[in-house]
Amino acid sequence: MKKIQTIFALLLAFTLVFSLAACGNNSNDASNNGSSVVYRTLDEIKESGTINIGVFSDKNPFGYVDESGEYQGYDVYFARRIGQDLGVDINFVSTEAANRVEYLETGKVDIVLANFTVTAERAEKVDFALPYMNVALGVVSPDSRVITDLSQIGKDDEVIVISGTTAEDYLIKNNPEIKLQKYDTYANAKNALENGNAAAWANDNTEVIAYALQNPGYTVGIPSLGSQDTIAPAVSKGNETLLNWINDEIKALASENFFHKDYEETLVDTYGLDYEESLVVEGGVPSTGGNTTDSVTLTVGASSTPHAELLEIVKPVLSEQGINLEIVIYDDYVLPNTGLQDGTLDANYFQHTPYLNSFNESNGTDLVSAGKIHYEPFGIYSYSVTDLKDLAKGATIIVPDDDSNQTRALLLLAQESLIELPTNASVESGATILDIVNDNGYKIQAAQADAIPSLLKNSDKGTVAVINYNYALGAGFKTTDALAIEDASGDAAQTYANIIAVRRGDENNPAIQALVKALQNGTVEQYNEQTGAGIVPIK
């Protein structure tokens, strides 16, 4: 009998192992299919008809479950609008501060809207969208012993924090001598304070202010600790389609003052109207308060034309927001990126994404786009040829020597039937002079992009050149002078849109986003009216 039981047990174990293996083979888990992608794209979310949004369930008034079992709060109000505008149902997933990153890294949620403060450390693991609220840290303590400075915390005192919050990170980094009492939930942290377990509670100032207003006997003795930060939605790292949609949504909602309405529906009973303007962020651009004495300086590298000229137009606009814009002009396409990478610059404005990607790959840099501003059509120019039909065989055609712009130039030459490229030549695959199948007898010469206008001017009669439009403008050309121009009706405008580039992690810096918004808000159109340049704004 014992032998039969043993055999049965072995058979059962084998069956379970086989079943688990079979389940594993059919799983969509990234660890099983060799892919590192755990997120759902925007199209996949729409196709499923449901979006999973991580929110707090115990953090009134930002995210909580009411007596009827319904999710409510400032973050939840925004979540419902996202579902409405996407045309999908919402599956609210209760989250704690400590597992917000984990839920995104494992694909448990598509978006986190849980009072998530933007920090550089978190931005290495998740992608933050534009902010929708201002925040700092604050400290609340009993009226019997109000803490107004951290120096009042004695060696035997403890301060309550929530695990995984910026308050925990801040105190560990800046005040390692202070003993921390850590809790996983807001409810437990509040109970600990009320039970007298610690001298104070450090958390987002919005939370501690709300707590003190709702609970007589407690005072926020330190209303602002550390830097002023922002709260933003977060998505899984690399989920660009969803991230871009959220950013566009936040910008669009500004036209109806959505987040002010959100505040008045969900927060006004707690904070009153006095805090509305200081807390609410509309359009993803926090107000730095033009009358503040704390100004911010942005140093931006740019090509002289048209980029530096566009930046000059927005200087006074940014100044009103407390942002001092310093412009450093460069004549080449390398130094603005090396200066950005080493911290000499805060941003640069001269390039498109294909060039940036190529530069990152070749130089080991980690620079990203903070926003698209305008598109400059690539053109073929000459001082002596007035029509490409008259271009003589054996004539020289000058093109840029960097990978992305050479590809673009060769595609334009192929568009005009001056050369033939392989049928599969494209922006994505790239093309070089060596890939030309038929040059039709023309001499294709590569040169550094910034040197092409002067080379053209000093070249033999009958020479033409494909010139980046910023350098064409600097040489006195306009789009109307081009013998041929890139087809802007296709993907070129989006693919080759000139961007504000920053170091990874700085994309949602409030001053950077203020710069992007200022440039996108009619500046290109104004520049065209003043100069007749004909560059194309990107919306």
Task: Characterise this structure.
With 539 residues, this protein is of the alpha/beta class. It has 5 domains: 2-32; 39-131 and 232-279, Periplasmic binding protein-like II (D-Maltodextrin-Binding Protein, domain 2), CATH 3.40.190.10; 134-229, 3-Layer(aba) Sandwich (D-Maltodextrin-Binding Protein, domain 2), CATH 3.40.190; 296-376 and 495-537, D-Maltodextrin-Binding Protein, domain 2 (3-Layer(aba) Sandwich), CATH 3.40.190; 379-487, D-Maltodextrin-Binding Protein, domain 2, CATH 3.40.190. Helices cover 37% and strands 23% of the residues. The longest helix has 24 residues, at 2-25. It starts with a helix and ends with a strand.
Give a concise summary:
This protein is an alpha/beta fold and 539 residues long. Strands 15-14-16-23-17-24 form a 6-stranded mixed β-sheet, with helices on both faces. Strands 5-1-6-13-7 form a 5-stranded mixed β-sheet.
The CATH topology of the largest domain is D-Maltodextrin-Binding Protein, domain 2
In terms of DSSP E residues, the strand content is 15-25%
What is the class of the largest domain in the CATH system? Alpha Beta
CATH H-level superfamily of the largest domain? Periplasmic binding protein-like II
Quickly give the structural class. alpha/beta
Mean of the pLDDT scores?
Answer: 87
Tell me which CATH architecture of the largest domain applies here: 3-Layer(aba) Sandwich
Low-confidence stretches: 1-34, 288-294
| Major sheet: arrangement of strands | 15-14-16-23-17-24
Count of β-strands: 24
Specify the number of helices: 22
Largest sheet: 6 strands, mixed
Radius of gyration: 29 Å
Gap between N and C termini? 78 Å
